[in-house]
Amino acid sequence: MSSTALLALPFQASVPTPAVRPAALPARAGHYQPACIRSLFDELAATYDCAAWLSGGLLGWWRARLAAALPRPPGSLPAVIVDLMAGGADLWPALRRRFGPGLRVAAIDFSAPMLARAAHHASNPALTLHCADALATPLPDAWATALTCAFGLKTLPTAAYPTLAAEAARLLQPGGTLALTELVLLPSGWQRGLLLHYLAAMPRLLGRLWPAATAHAALLRYARSGPDLPALTMALRAAGFEQIQQQRLWPGCAVLISARKPSEPL
Ligand SMILES: C[S@@+](CC[C@H](N)C(=O)[O-])C[C@H]1O[C@@H](n2cnc3c(N)ncnc32)[C@H](O)[C@@H]1O
C-alpha cells in the first residue's frame, strides 16, 4: 500500500484480517525497529478494542483529557487536527466532543489493520485516514491548528524524537498546539508493581478465552521502559516549541505533554 494512501470505507475489505495467533515477541535488539512495531500492531489490531475496557475506562478518560488540553481556535475558525499514531482514530470521539461538527482530523498510522478499525467512523468526510509513517506524513506544511498523539510514544525509539518534533513543527500552523499522552509508570513503588502485574496477567487470562489477546503481552516491555520524557522535552525545545508542560494524569500512571508552536512575529 502506498504510504500516502487515503483510506476510506471500502478499504476495510482490502485489508487482510490480522493473523489470530500469539504475537511473536520482537528480538531484544529490534524492539523499536519500525517493521517490528508495525507487525506487532498489525497483530494487535483484532483485539485492540479490549484495551479500552481492560483499562477500566481510563484510556477513554485520558483521551478526553488530551482533547481538553487543546484550545479551541479563535472565532468561528474550524479545528484542523493531525492525529499521529492514531490507531483506529481512537481519539476521534473525544476530539468531536471537544470541537463539534466543524472539526477536521487526519489520522496517521503505519499499520493498515489498526487504521481499518476506524472504518466505522470513516463515512464522515471530516475524518481522513492515511497509512503513513508519523515521522514523514504526506500532509502539507502548516496544515493543522493542533497535533495529537495518544499512546504512540512508548514504541518510538528515543533517537526518533527529534524527527517527530520536527515533523510536528512542520505540520502545525504558527500558534498551533501539540498534545501527547502516554502510559508512564511511576519509577518505583506499589502502584508500578501492581500495574506491571496486571499488564502481564490480563493478556494471559484473556488469551484463554480469546487466543489473539495474548499478543497484548508484548506491550509490557514498552510500558516497563516508557518514553524518555526529558529527551522528548529537549527535542520539542530544539524544534522551536514553547510552553512545554507535563502533567501526571489520575491515577498517576499516564502523562500529558503539551506545547505550543510560537506565533509568527507581528
Ligand atoms: C498503542 S497504539 C495507539 C492508538 C491510538 N492512538 C489510541 O489512542 O489508542 C499505537 C499506534 O501507533 C502506531 N505507530 C507506531 N509507530 C508509528 C509510526 N512511526 N508511524 C505511524 N504509526 C505508528 C501503531 O501502528 C499503533 O496503531
TrEMBL record:
It comes from the Bacteria. Keywords: Methyltransferase, Transferase. GO terms for molecular function: methyltransferase activity. SUPFAM superfamilies: S-adenosyl-L-methionine-dependent methyltransferases (SSF53335). It holds the Pfam family Methyltransf_25. One of its GO terms (biological process) is methylation. InterPro entries: Methyltransf_25, SAM-dependent_MTases_sf. Residues 81-176 form the Methyltransferase domain. PANTHER family: 2-METHOXY-6-POLYPRENYL-1,4-BENZOQUINOL METHYLASE, MITOCHONDRIAL, METHYLTRANSFERASE. This is Class I SAM-dependent methyltransferase. It comes from Hymenobacter lapidiphilus.
